[in-house]
Write a structure and sequence with these properties.
Chain B: This is Ribosome production factor 2 homolog. Chain B: It comes from Coemansia spiralis. The structure holds two protein chains of two kinds. Chain A is mainly alpha-helical. Chain A is 46% helix and 8% strand. Among the domains of chain A are: 82 residues, no CATH class; 81 residues, no CATH class. Chain A has a two-stranded antiparallel sheet. In chain A, strands 3-4 form a two-stranded antiparallel ribbon. In chain A, strand 5 and strand 6 form a beta hairpin. Chain A is extended, with a radius of gyration of 39 Å. Chain B has a domain of 209 residues: 3-Layer(aba) Sandwich (Rossmann fold). Chain B contains seven helices and 13 strands. Classes of the chains: A mainly alpha, B alpha+beta. The interface between A and B is large, with 57 and 72 residues.
Chain lengths: 294, 310
């Protein structure tokens, strides 16, 4: 039985999907892009606008056909009613919009969990509350764990005073837990900061304490010369109280006194000539806002 | 210099964390700004490019004193405020008529930009074709070897790819390949001027072809732009290197020693080290024990005798 006739008829019914190109076209399917380096018919492009547009449309159609051919040959996954083609990785180098995030150092818990190989178990947001017969969030607004009504009865533990308020005890325990968590988060933050600066957290704390100590010396009139010293406190050099000489230059004495007077009557800016830009801007903004409200 | 904003509630904090550097980044937002003087042509171009770029696009309708090639501060300020890493500035002057500057930023600093003169613009409204839905990823075609050879056109190609990339996706619906953007590099002019770059956009219709791959038919959708490259600002070496650097987490981990054959069966390869068979610890069998002094035992003798007798 000669089927070639039927096959030819079938083939002729549809338009061809083949495209001829001398140099094979390069594809970057991850970007849905193709780069065609073949020779373009320059005469057509220099011709009239209509001829040019027709030629460009033809070129585009062929390029699009080549890409569709490639895309339809990719491995596919079917999802509901649409077919998805899995795209390969992008080959052209495109720049990011922001630099890559720096690796955050591990917190104490993360280090511990890594050693013990503790996996993070995902918990669902909603929990079924049997008493009320409905789904409630595990935490947060109308959550299961911060309901004051639950439990409606608390047994007094064996070693506790029977007159103690157990509900109060529960609330206080919860506050303690929250505070503990905050302290730990703060500690993690400080440790992270220290690691980012390249120091050990203990060394950083030591440095902070020492700088605070030196600052506190300035609050005494004798610059901390006669304060009780701690064991191992380093000697601070150069922390002296400066006194002006008794007999001063008369010009200097006059300018000093004028500065004090101006500072009291007109303000820091007029006295020293130094303006705090931030404060000034805020004052202007406040004035504008109050003017708008009028 | 903008102060880093502090979040006062959880929603604000989430908003700021979204703008922080990430391993897998958000899709780039494009900002469309007008210069101090504009022409109808350039306004139409900006409007059309904005509608192609929706929803990740911000359109400024007021005019701004902005000259990207002269001063970077304006662009960087806008980029920081709007968290946009792509920008398009349109302006018009006698010296540079219908001027369009396309560019991108890295870490809120200008990375690179290219200045194009729009010599002819046909808007989407002038084509009677049906426009495609918002947010579709286009197919991009670059015709001409000039895009690989000419440094300026290579930069244009890179910027246009970034501009029309859409959201990063590892899967694409075969029904959603709705439009095509073609950029063709035209021949250089007779007096040595750079050639025109033809920007065309079409909607696709997929028709039956009797095979698995459909036949593509195009209809011009617009905008249709004839562009001429004017000035180009290439990126600084070190900034470009930093921008290309991919975080280590994105490196694809190659699975070793696992392969699939043609039928889809999964094969694993186990490498057993060199085994010294003599030294393998097995259960002790006294009979197999090698005697240091090769004394023939009584039993052997009797078997020999038996053999002899036979």
């Amino acid at each position: 039985m000669d089927v070639t006739g039927i096959l030819d008829e079938h083939k002729n019914r549809f338009k061809s999907i083949q495209v001829e190109r001398l140099v094979p076209v390069e594809f970057d399917l991850g970007l849905l892009a193709c780069f065609d380096v073949n020779m373009i018919d320059e005469a057509q492009l220099r011709a009239s606008q209509k001829a040019r547009d027709t030629y460009l449309q033809e070129l585009s159609r062929e390029g699009a056909q080549l890409m569709i051919n490639e895309l339809f040959s990719l491995p596919t996954t079917v999802d509901e009613d649409s077919v998805y083609a899995t795209l390969p990785a992008i080959r052209t180098v495109l720049p990011r919009e922001k630099p890559a995030p720096k690796e955050k150092p591990m917190t104490r818990w993360e280090k511990f969990a890594k050693i013990k190989n503790i996996q993070n178990k995902k918990k669902s947001r909603m929990v079924y509350d049997e008493d009320q017969g409905e789904w409630r969030p595990r935490f947060g607004f109308k959550g299961v764990n911060n309901d004051d009504q639950k439990p409606w009865l608390i047994e007094v533990p064996g070693n506790a005073d029977p007159y103690d308020d157990q509900y109060k005890a529960r609330r206080e325990e919860k506050k303690e837990r929250i505070d503990k968590n905050k302290r730990r988060a703060q500690r993690n933050f400080e440790e992270n900061l220290a690691v980012e600066k390249g120091m050990k957290p203990r060394d950083m704390r030591k440095r902070e304490l020492q700088s605070a100590l030196v600052l506190s010396k300035g609050s005494t009139a004798s610059m901390g010369k006669f304060d009780d010293k701690l064991a191992g406190e380093p000697k601070v050099k150069g922390l002296k109280r400066k006194f002006d000489p008794l007999v001063k230059n008369s010009d200097k004495e006059k300018s000093n006194n004028m500065e004090i007077l101006n500072r009291v009557s007109k303000g820091e800016a007029k006295a020293t000539g130094v303006v705090n830009v931030r404060k000034a801007q805020r004052a202007i903004n406040n004035a504008k806002r109050s003017k708008k409200q009028e | 210099m903008l102060l880093k904003p502090k979040a006062k509630n959880a929603r604000a904090k989430r908003f700021l964390v979204n703008r922080d550097p990430k391993i897998v980044e958000n899709g780039k937002t494009a900002l469309f700004v007008r210069g101090s003087t504009t022409s109808q042509v350039i306004l139409d171009t900006l409007k059309d490019l904005y509608s192609l770029r929706k929803p990740d696009a911000i359109n400024f309708t007021k005019k701004n004193e902005i000259h990207p090639f002269d001063s970077e501060t304006s662009i960087e300020f806008f980029a920081r405020k709007n968290d946009s890493s792509l920008f398009a500035v349109g302006m018009h002057s006698k010296k540079r008529p219908h001027n369009l500057v396309l560019g991108r930023t890295f870490n809120y600093n200008i990375l690179d930009m290219i200045e194009l003169g729009v010599e002819r613009c046909t808007t989407m409204q002038q084509f009677k074709a049906q426009t495609c839905a918002i947010g579709m990823k286009p197919l991009m075609i670059f015709n001409g070897e000039a895009f690989n050879q000419n440094e300026d056109l290579a930069r244009l190609k890179s910027i246009l790819l970034d501009f029309f990339r859409g959201e990063a996706a590892d899967k694409v619906s075969l029904k959603g390949l709705e439009y095509v953007i073609t950029v063709t590099a035209g021949p250089a002019g007779a007096n040595g001027e750079t050639g025109l770059v033809f920007f065309r956009a079409y909607t696709t219709t997929l028709k039956k072809s009797g095979t698995r791959q459909p036949r593509v038919e195009l209809e011009e959708m617009g905008p249709s732009l004839d562009l001429r490259v004017r000035r180009v600002r290439q990126p600084a070496e070190d900034m470009w290197k930093q921008a290309i650097k991919m975080p280590r987490e994105l490196n694809v981990v190659k699975t070793k020693n696992i392969s699939r054959d043609g039928l889809g069966d999964k094969y694993g390869r186990i490498h057993v080290g060199k085994q010294e068979i003599n030294k393998i610890q097995t259960r002790k069998v006294k009979a197999l024990k090698k005697h240091l002094d090769a004394k023939p035992s009584k039993r052997q003798k009797t078997s020999d005798d038996m053999a002899d007798s036979d």
